[in-house]
Amino acid sequence: MSESPAALQSLEALQAELAGVWSGALLGASADTESDVRLMGDAGLVRVTEALARVQRRVQVLQARCAAELAARSRTGDETDVAKQHGFASAERLIVEATGGRYTDAARLVSIGEATAHRATFTGEVLPARHPHLAAAFEAGSVSIEVADVIRRFLDHVAPRADREDLREAETLLVERAPSIGVEGTQRLIRQLEAYLDPDGVKPREDELRSARSLKIWQDAAGMINLRGAFDPATGAPIKLAIETLVGAELHAARDARHGFGAGDGDAGEAGASATGGSPAAGMSGSDATAGAAASDATAGATAPDPLFAEDRSIAQMNADALADIARLSLSSPEAPPALRSATVIARVDADALASGRGHATIDGVDQPVSIQTARELAMSAGISPLFMADGCEKVQLGRSLRLFNSAQRAVLIARDGGCAWPGCPRPPSHTQAHHIDWWTRDRGPTDLDNGIMLCAHHHHRVHGDGWKILIREGRSWFVPPPHLDPDQRPRPGNTAPDHLAREHLAVRRRARNAGRHASAPALVGSATA
């Protein structure tokens, strides 16, 4: 049997290695691909995946060599052009047909093949590859073709403006680091290297990125408001930081909840129980008393995570909520630009629809109608003005000026709740709105402190959408879940401002001590007289 071509011997060695790894990974007899994979142990499956990647990288080397040669033979400009002989406009088109892949992949094979192949002078002298360190790493299979192309494009781009020795050092560094940091890590390293190799190009590149910044906002057929943007570093940095900070805080809070942090509210529950004779619900009547009596149970498991308050949003949803919170804060901030301070979101709703709860509302500038429930949420949000319309009439009531909690009331509510009162929510006061517990229209609830609570937009929506009931007893909030979430409807203690919690705790203890002293006073007097 004749010996295999030298170019294929390394591939055959890798195939033999793959066969051994595959066989060693099987925990039973081999049948077919799908069955074999299912029979592999965890460690064996990982080893097989790594072996397949080595084979793939070797095949890519052979493909790149063939692609570069096909490209060279397809640029003759005469009848010997290989691509045209086979009916294709270029070598890349021929490769696309052969591989069934994309044109960009074919072009990459050609570029990498040419950049890592030996060169020949007009006299026939053989010269090293244009990027020799990259060529060696690619041939050895230590870098994939994707990483090799990223490095190749960078080196070709910066070569005219960089010192030759510095460029070689950069190539060496990239080739050494690329196997461990992958494509994205290599791109990050390249951006820093480019600044060192071409310091005069930093400002022009920055200007180019800045001129390409954009943000498009449109509404699709489903009624969703879509945003697609690209920002230069200086413009995008505050956007990125603000969103990541808000989302990071919520992720930390969710992690802490899983580990049972934040048990301090349990003390408040016990304090409330002491002050009311054993239950934070003392003094309630009917179903409120039943719900409040169950509240003491909430303190018993304060250190255990409550599944009802588990974070169920994806990162993408949390990013969207964070951006919405930033926009709401900007609309109500006195530090916002003058044009933004005068901007108001207007929700229009028919008065009969608002009263009956049947119908819909519209938001100025947004095509998609919204529900009455959403209109009520907007009506209670800072910086939002609902505009109530009667049939064929002019504006009859501007809800923002008549029904929103004023700044003094908000200050008192913030002093009590500390921010969003929803259990475990870390949102600060600046990201909350004062919400009517008994709704303004549906329940004719007053804009009084006893009927107010601070909620962030996300949890405001949950209260409305899920049917939670909120109780205020002994100066703190209790959240009663709807039956479909908790058949027992066990109240959960809401967030309380730390200073309010400490103050109330001390007040309860002092009242208990004073009551004890007054109760024992006659006995003490009698003892002294005797």
From TrEMBL:
Q: Where is the HNH nuclease domain?
A: 408-461
**Compositionally biased intervals (Low complexity):** 270-291
Protein name as catalogued: DUF222 domain-containing protein
Region annotated Disordered sits at 262-291, 511-530
The highest taxon in the source lineage is Bacteria
InterPro entries attached here? Answer: DUF222, HNH_nuc
